[in-house]
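User: Hey, quick favor. My workstation is busy. Could you predict this chain's structure for me?
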Amino acid sequence: MKKYEVAKIILANKPSVPVNTTVQVFAPTNIALCKYWGKRDDELNLPVTSSLSVAIPDKGAQVTLHTRSDKDIISINGQIVAENSSVYSRATAFIDLFRQKNSCFLQIEYSLNIPMSAGLASSACSFAALTKALNELFAWQLPEKSLSILARLGSGSAARSIWSNFVEWHAGTRADGMDSYAESLPYQWPELCLGILILSDKEKSLSSREAMKRCVNSSALYASWPDQVDHDMKLLHEALANKDFDSMGSTAEANALAMHAVTLASRPPICFSSPETIAVWQKIWALRASGLKLYFTQDAGPNLILLFLGKDIPEILNAFPTITICRR
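Assistant: No problem, here it is.
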């Protein structure tokens, strides 16, 4: 099945021309505690496994849409995006799924407060925000489950950035992907803090999309990845339900390291970590050995997200003065 066929099913009897002329929507970035790594369908961005994430509510992407009479224009943080760029082609191809040809052109203004393509889910929050903005522009009035499926067509993990909470993305089994969607989980944990530690804001040399494909096709460790996820998902649900910080933190950290082990075992190897990343791993392990309750997770990039509790913020700031602390 193709993306436009999925869009056609979800948007049956919905407007294909804008009802509004200007809308503005925000979507948070989401940090996977149990990673999405590998696809069973590249066209529909269907994952091999389920995943579980937590949103950082005030970090992510704001999208403003204005209708236009001629060509699309895209800007990111005030800078016009070249029409021959991959960012432009991905965004316009996504919008083409929903609009009548040559009847709706848009000015798309992205405003992100996180680095792009640096392993902080910038693509996820951008496509989630764009999906929510299109929902308002066209007045589709879609439920969140449908928005999650549509956002997934743009970027897999965008399925999780529809919400500002703990979220599970169900892998599903159907070939059309209609059972592969995310949903908000009932867990509340206001004491849980996340710290963004930017070690590099440079765009990574290999996209997550290409890295996943290489891992699925060549990593000797990938066959064990689904079992790892099944094990970790159960532990995370139990830890979140019981607010067991050590179990949650240790499971998230182990899951991230397992994902990076899979990438290192691919051919040729993929290493998203920098020497600075590994030095911070070791610093965190030393701090934890000294009694500080501190864990990390790491997506497909060199930057780290630290996991800790609010009571330990002074110690975290002392150890990592450049960290950005996000309370939920």
